[in-house]
Amino acid sequence: MSAQQENESDHRTAGRTAGRAAAVGGWARRWLRRLTASLGAGGMVSAGVVLLVVLAALLPGLLAPGDPTAVAPAQAYQPPGPGAVFGTDASGRDVYTRVVHGAGQSLGVGAAATAIGLGLGLLLGFGAALGPRWLDGALSRVIEVLFALPSLVLALLLVSVLGAGVGPSVLAVGLATAPGYARILRARARSVVHSPYVTAARLEGVSAPMAFVRHVLPNTLWPLIAVGTLGIGQAIVWVSALSYLGLGALPPSPEWGAMLNAGRLHITSSWWLTVAPGLAITAAAAALTMLGRRLSAVAPA
């Protein structure tokens, strides 16, 4: 090949690369504009709250440089004021510092429980939607029976079997939420599999695995991601509820449910011990719920 031909080949390759980059950039800009328009003012505020919680989880020292476990008995039960924004607890620990540092544990266990539920839901949902008829019937019956039970009651049942602790509570909440994800995924996957564009692709000779990767997977995972965002907020509430009941994280852990458990005996005299972590749970769960609902509007139909 001559030098001129090599240069022409290089120019064509560079042109194709630039064209792909421009196409991807245009798609990203259109998707970002659609996302911003779909989120609206409420969605943007929710996204801001979620980003703040994530920042507190990843870099708690940036928002609260103090030690969440440092005790100062002489400063116990101080009400909210200039020296302690959210007051202090029975051991003189700063409640604001503990709430900020507890974001990592609360968000982490909520995300872990949701990941377990989504992972199991993917296996059950895709197995029921794409498997043979007998497998669909068997898995569908199992999913419907588990879905009929209230998720929190199912989580309590699983914790009673697995034992108390952070790990068992995360696993219990994840297993309890899996039937809901599986049910959503099965219905969505079956709809996509029988859609005209998948049928057309199969008639054109596209193999079943390739059709799954190109069409079924992208059009089922995005709605599940939107639902998973909702699920993280729900999982935070349920794991906190288990900790409040003494079945999850225990004091002196700064996990929000454990803080509620520690402050419940002083709710009439030191209300800030329960109000501060309770507000954190409410704000995080509400923001994730609203963000998940807005994201579901962006999902492909």
TrEMBL record:
The answer on whether this UniProt entry bears the keyword Ribonucleoprotein reads no
Q: Does the keyword Transmembrane helix apply?
A: yes
| Family matches, as InterPro entries | BP-dependent_transpt_permease, MetI-like, MetI-like_sf
The record's listing under Pfam families reads:
BPD_transp_1
Keywords on record:
Cell membrane, Membrane, Transmembrane, Transmembrane helix, Transport
Segments forming domain ABC transmembrane type-1:
103-292
| Entries under SUPFAM superfamilies matching the protein | MetI-like
Q: Which family does it belong to?
A: Belongs to the binding-protein-dependent transport system permease family.
Task: Return the protein name.
Answer: ABC transporter permease
